[in-house]
Amino acid sequence: MRRKGVWILLTVMIIAVIAGCSGSGNDDNKLVIGIDDKFAPMGFRDENNEIVGFDIDYAKAAAEKMGKKVTFQPIDWSAKESELNSGRIDMIWNGYTITDERKEKVLFTRPYLENSQVVVVLADSPLATLADLAGKELGLQSLSSAADALDASPIKAEVAGVSEFPDNVLALTDLKSGRLDGVVIDEVVARYYMSLEQNTYKLLDESLAPEQYGVGIKKDNQALLDELQKALDELSSDGTAAEISTKWFGENKVLN
């Protein structure tokens, strides 16, 4: 009985090893993409709780070119680089702004979309310019490029206060409730919500900072970056990128 028990244990261990090897093989063919699932129209949940958006369609198309399966993993956006460097995700792909600070932490694809940081206020607000923000309460998403843009602006020293939120939806909710006077936010996101809730918001006449979106890859994974960039280039050349952009923005905004 003791000898039989040893054989049973060895058999279980061998099966576990085989299963582990099989799993590793599948992982080589899978991409886990970290997203903020409340960042419309780039990546967000629709009325059926399905993850949709421009970046979602774009990533799926790129993964198909690469011959890989893709999984979208909602993450705490304030910990996105930690998620990447820990290996829990393979890419940061959801309106991820290219900055010099982030270039020190991750590898970036070439920019694929232009954006800017703007200030959204309620449609009936008397505020019209950045100078009007003096003494006002602002909100923005925590550890986002909106915070960087505001920090770099002279108006930062004149505002009454800045509240940080886990996502833009919560910031806009506080704006509508009157707890904030304005929200610093990506223009593509602002215009999406303005299209959904017409006559609710308006943008100040001036923007804070122009910027570009890219896909973030772990520093030591140049091979994956090159493979992804090749796929993105193919999507531009065969017209797929333009089709996806037109679906979400009504025009081709993708940088070639």
From TrEMBL:
Q: Keywords, A to Z?
A: Signal
Listed Pfam families? SBP_bac_3 (PF00497)
- The answer to whether UniProt assigns keyword Ubl conjugation to this entry is no
> Which segments constitute the Solute-binding protein family 3/N-terminal domain?
30-252
What is the protein's given name? Amino acid ABC transporter substrate-binding protein, PAAT family
Q: Which organism is it from?
A: Paenibacillus typhae
